[in-house]
Amino acid sequence: MHPVRRQRLLLVLFIVVFSSVAIGLMAYALRANINLFYPPSQIVSGEAPVNTRIRAGGCVRPGSVERSKTTLETRFSLTDGVVDFPVVYSGILPDLFAEGEAAVVNGSLNKERVFVATEVLAKHDEEYMPPEVAEAMSQSGGDHDETCGGMAYGS
Amino acid sequence: MASWQWFHRLGSPRWFYEKTGGWLPWLTAVALVLLVLGTVWGLAFSPEDFKQGNSYRIIYIHVPAAFLALAGYYIMAVCGAVGLIWRMKLAFMVMKSAAPIGAGLTFVSLVTGAIWGKPTWGTWWAWDARITSMLILFFLYLGIMALQSAFQNREAADKASAILALVGTVNIPIIYKSVDWWYTLHQPATLKLTSAPTIHASMLYPLLTMVVAFYVFYAVVLLLYTRHEILRRESRTGWVRELIAKEGGL
Q1: A122 and A103, same structural domain?
Q2: What percentage of residues in chain A have a pLDDT greater than 90?
Q3: Same domain, residue pair A18 and A93
Q4: Which residue has better confidence, A18 or B2?
Q5: For residues A27 and A29, what is the distance between their CA atoms, to the nearest angstrom?
Q6: What is the distance between the alpha carbons of residues B126 and A58, in angstroms, rounded to a whole number?
Q7: How many residue pairs from chains A and B have C-beta atoms closer than 8 A?
Q8: Total domain count, chain A
Q9: What is the DSSP letter of A128?
Q10: Residue B9 pLDDT more than 80?
Q11: Which of A117, A126, B24, B185 could pair with A89 in a Cys bridge, judged by C-beta atoms 3.0 to 4.6 Å apart?
């Protein structure tokens, strides 16, 4: 390779490597802010601030959803499989909200450390299959509705 | 030095223009067949999803568009690097042509994602790492297009946009890994390099057809843009004048 071109090649590599390192360090320093939501472990451990608008996320614990008979109020727990915290929400839930599915809630923790949500988003998983296959899987002991799949929220 | 000769010939706009002219009808035919096949298969014949029903079918546009938005960025950046190192005119022309196509594909994946997000998540938009980094990709493409038209001097425009394209490459692995590195609303990848896809085969094959269709479609559009750019930049050369005289234009 011609020396001039070799020098330009090194310059190009320099640009790519150093801009990547710079942006990588920035992303690393801001990693907590890049997360869209607090995982259950940080809500329970008290790392998440109280009375501040935050988002939290986790798996809707199967059997924890209680719907009020007279109002739109819904209570449920979000879990990471180890710890969980209660959420209360008044409003219409998205269609894909269900027990054993992941959800992201937007709101704040009150003094009793109950998450008062003003918005609930369903977090879809990466699995796609026809209804017959899902049916067959649940009959053959597949635990499709029991857990939120390979969810790892740092607990 | 002889071993580099093929590479330098590849850099000749005239050679490229004459070669690709013959490929275009074939590529266009393949792209059309695959697009029609994938669309009909995906929208009409693949089964409903067990949770989302029919709304998942937007995946047949969303995922291929997002794939090509990322792959197209690497094509643009590699062309920028080749242009900077070897001062190859053709590489800069391909780089310039890749920007508007990439911007269009990024826009399509953002819009289809929002349309899917409203019924699935319950919101059009969330500032999570995947969606935000995809928006940054859109602005990078727009930035390259803006730099190209901001300079009077062609060489300065090409060098500046090549450097921006190279700096922006860091965003591609960030987009790709964002769903694994951070807690996001967007789900992790369904089609993975290292493990089996988490989509049933009856839905996977039309999706793969659409991905291949988008790759061929991308090639067709990139060739068309690049050929247009070649004619514009080489309009004063003898071979382009001859070509125009032969076609009876102007």
Answers
A1: yes
A2: 39
A3: no
A4: A18
A5: 5
A6: 16
A7: 123
A8: 2
A9: B
A10: no
A11: A117
Pairing verdict, β A54-60 and A73-79: antiparallel
Cα–Cα distance measured from residue A106 to residue A91, given in angstroms and rounded to the nearest whole number: 12
Which member of A123, A131, A135 has the closest CB to residue B187? A123
- A67: which strand partners? A74
The one-letter amino acid code at B12 reads S
Task: Return residues 36-95 of A near B (CB < 8 Å).
Answer: 36-37, 39, 57, 93-95
> Could you report the per-residue pLDDT of B59-83, keeping only the tens digit for each?
999 999 999 999 999 999 999 999 9
A93-102, A113-122, B34-43, B203-212: which range is least confident on average? A93-102
CATH of the domain at A69: 2.40.50.140
B51, B60, B128, B137: best mutation site toward chain A, by most A Cβ within 10 Å? B51
User: What ipTM describes this predicted complex?
Assistant: 0.84
Give, for A123, the enclosing helix (H) or strand (E). Answer: strand A115-123
With respect to residue A14, please indicate whether it lies within any of the assigned structural domains.
Answer: yes
B185 touches chain A (CB under 8 A): yes
Percent of chain A with pLDDT over 70: 88
The residue of chain B with its CA nearest to that of A9 is B85
The tokens 């009909």 sit on which residue? B40
Please state the rounded mean pLDDT for residues B163-173. 95
> What local confidence, expressed as pLDDT, does residue A135 receive?
79
Which residue range forms the structural domain that includes residue A20? 3-33
Average pLDDT over residues A16-42: 90
Interface with A, mutate which of B7, B54, B121 (most A CBs under 10 A): B121
Q: What mean pLDDT, rounded, does chain A reach?
A: 86
Q: Tell me if A73 is assigned to some domain.
A: yes
- CB contact (8 A) between residue A123 and residue B185: yes
Pick from A126, A114, A62: nearest CA to B130: A126
Residue A27 lies in a domain: yes
